[in-house]
Each structure stands twice: as C-alpha cells, then as structure tokens.
Amino acid sequence: MSDLYDTDVLLWSEQQAALLRRRAAGELVNDTELDWPNIAEEIESVGSEQRHAVESLLLQALLHQLKIEAWPSSRDVPHWRSEARLFRARARRRFVPSMRQRIDVAGLYHDAFRALPENGG
Between 20 and 30 A from 96 (CA), which of 15, 89, 103, 118? Predict the structure, then answer.
C-alpha cells in the first residue's frame, strides 16, 4: 500500500509543479486544478524538515562537544572533536538565514546535556 501512496503523491506533486510552472510562465491555468491548501502544506513541510535536519546536526555537535568537556582525558576526545566539527560543518551547509529565529539553541543544549551518557561513553 505504501508504494501506491508514494506513487500517488509523486504524481500529484509532479502535476502540481507543472501547473505552477505554467502559471509562473504567464499561462492561464484552471485554478481549480491547483490544490492550494496542500501545496502550502507541502512547502511548509519541506521547510520544517530542513530545519529539523539542521537541529539534529547541531544536537549531535553539542553532544560531542559536551562529551569533550565532561571527559577531557578520554581516549575518545579526538574522535568526538572530529565528529563535532563534521556535524557543525554539515549544519552550516544546510542552514539558511530564515531558520535563525526558529532554532532553539538553548533547548538543543538542554537536550544534548540530558543525552550525555553517565559513564563517559
């Protein structure tokens, strides 16, 4: 059933994209064919997914940085440092300025702190 649903969504999105492109090019299209409420929902969903991806990367970077601070003599520090750098770089590449006001850095820090293992692993 999932494959059928995915196919239907793909066809719907392709159809809606084609109609929007035609309209953007100045062609008159039948507005009843454009599924405006769902188009808006899909656009919003894409933005949310991108923001969540950046938040996840930042959370991982914070968690690794907190491990370094909590267990500075661990043999894993070089690995944690490398991972933290990688997560920050990946977050930086995906970040767009419109996310700035929507990302709760204090909340991410709190989540990372709560996720710290008790044994330093």
Answer: 15
In this predicted model, what pLDDT tens digit does every residue of 27-52 receive, in sequence order?
A: 888 888 888 898 889 888 888 999 99
**70 with 117: CB under 8 angstroms?**
no
Instruction: Provide the strand spans (E) within 53-117.
Output: none
Contact 101, 68 (CB under 8 A): no
Q: Is 6 exposed, middle or buried (0-12, 13-18, 19+ CB in 10 A)?
A: exposed
- Match 């405006």 to its residue by tokens: 36
| Assessment of whether the complete model's pTM goes beyond 0.70 | yes
Q: 35 φ, ψ to 5°? A: -90, 70
The conformation of residue 99, written as its DSSP 8-state character, comes to: G
Closest CA to 76 of 63, 87, 94, 59: 63
Contact by Cβ (8 Å): 39, 16? yes
Instruction: Please tell me the number of Cα atoms within 13 Å of 97 on its side-chain side.
Output: 0
Is 73 in contact with 117 (CB distance < 8 Å)? Answer: no
Tokens of residue 66, six digits? 């907190």
